[in-house]
Amino acid sequence: MSIALEVVIMGDTVRIDANITNYDGTAYDPDSQSIQLYQPNGTASGAALITPTKTAIGRYTQEVTIPSAAGTPAGRWYVRWACTSGTKISTGNIYFDVKP
Known about the structure:
By secondary structure, the chain is mainly beta. The chain has strands spanning 2-9, 13-19, 32-38, 53-56, 59-65, 75-85, 88-99. It has a single domain, classed as Macroglobulin (MG2) domain (Immunoglobulin-like), CATH 2.60.40. A four-stranded mixed beta sheet has the order 1-7-6-3, with no helix packed on it.
């Protein structure tokens, strides 16, 4: 699933929420998770985050700070949230526009 957020200013911190369900819509907790921020050109920005905060079964939240260093590109950024359960991997992208 892909979700578009509002415009984000460089240096801002955004909160990403995930509702993790199986194919029939039942919430579950995956074995592991990885949340990675990507620049408009598809390059990963910083290290992947692996310890989101659990708020309920299958519900997690993670804060991600958009870089503000010189040379940080404006444009359509995204966060890829990946979940692993056993040998199965599921991913979802959250898109947002970054401006200086």
